Amino acid sequence: MEKIKCVEGIHYQSQRPIRLTFDHDLISGMEELEEISSSLIIAPGLVDLQVNGFQGVDFNEPDLSVNDVVFCTEKLWENGVTTFLPTLITASEQALSDAIKKIIHACEDPLIAASIAGIHLEGPFISKDAGPRGAHPLEFVQEPNWEFISRLQKVAKGKIKLITLSPEYESANDVIKKCVAEQIQIAIGHTAAKADQLKRAAEAGASLSTHLGNAAHLSLPRHPNYIWDQLALDDLWTSMISDGFHLPDAVMKVFMSVKPDKSFLVSDSTKFAGLPAGTYQSPIGGTVQLTSTGRLSMQENPDLLAGSAASLKSCLEYLIHANLATLSQAIDMASVKPLSYLAKGEKVSVFQEGSRADVVLFERKTSKMMINKTIKSGRLIYSSEI
Ligand SMILES: [Zn+2]
């Protein structure tokens, strides 16, 4: 991949013309320019902490190949994503171990390794209740188990960085503490936990609510309930699927208001993201329908969503379209903030000497981002012009 020395464009925040210079995989400087001929906007590369699959590839399918992982990463680059966490949902230990091996094998390529910042295990330590469990298979749901995690972490060569679990089990707090001590971040999700269990989990080190407001009972007591309780815990960050289907605008507005510095976007994309509208077979949902607007539902009951078919880019475009965020706020929620969460809350500098040379250049068409170039570690990994 071609090494890039410098790029010019309009700064996504200040809207002023700039030149960024790169030194290998880092930014070596940012210079303001009087004028430039380009109308491209420069922003940090997008960061998606929840990707189950993309464009025909599902990390959870048993026939996943190493090439599939590489292909999926390249398709994400095309969509502006420079860093992501492949996400594995509840399955048998053998199936999880097999998928992890494929991902780790793909990481032998340094650019793939740099793009895959870690693996997100979503399950199997989640609620058994219908609703919170979502589409995760009941037969493999189990209580949090440190030995299970340790064995998988060995297979993953330390690359499991995030685990979504429910703290409604006795063993949860002990496992949370062990994970945090071993540099694995813990998210609460797919949960039916009570207020005191949530509070103790946060005290033990849980730091995120995974796709808050989804994977929940269809009806909840008005209060208390686990959505209010998680929102009220100041140490918890919140991830949201802002595809326009998973959460009403009012709910997203409230989440963002309660957690102005600690909310970020995830796509939670399945293999159907990036595919044309049509009817498909899903490994977990049977026959599913994908509309041209990107809504993925069960064919037999179109009221029920069958996961997300949105890219992170379209999630951030939706926030702008719905007037919930400006372009620069939406980009931050899909880049700087998830990166800052991964850095355990450390502030992530943008376009400063020493910050990562992970950048997207794009043209803005109303609320849409037309990706022109994606640069990872100072290398051109996607160009619409080639
Ligand atoms: Zn989920």
UniProtKB/TrEMBL annotation:
GO biological process: N-acetylglucosamine catabolic process
GO molecular function: metal ion binding; N-acetylglucosamine-6-phosphate deacetylase activity
Known cofactor(s): a divalent metal cation
Catalytic machinery residues: D268 (proton donor/acceptor)
Residue ranges annotated for the Amidohydrolase-related domain, each copy included: 41-380
Cofactor binding comment, as recorded: Binds 1 divalent metal cation per subunit.
Family as reported in the entry's similarity comment: Belongs to the metallo-dependent hydrolases superfamily. NagA family.
UniProt-recorded name of the protein: Amidohydrolase family protein
Native source species: Echinicola soli
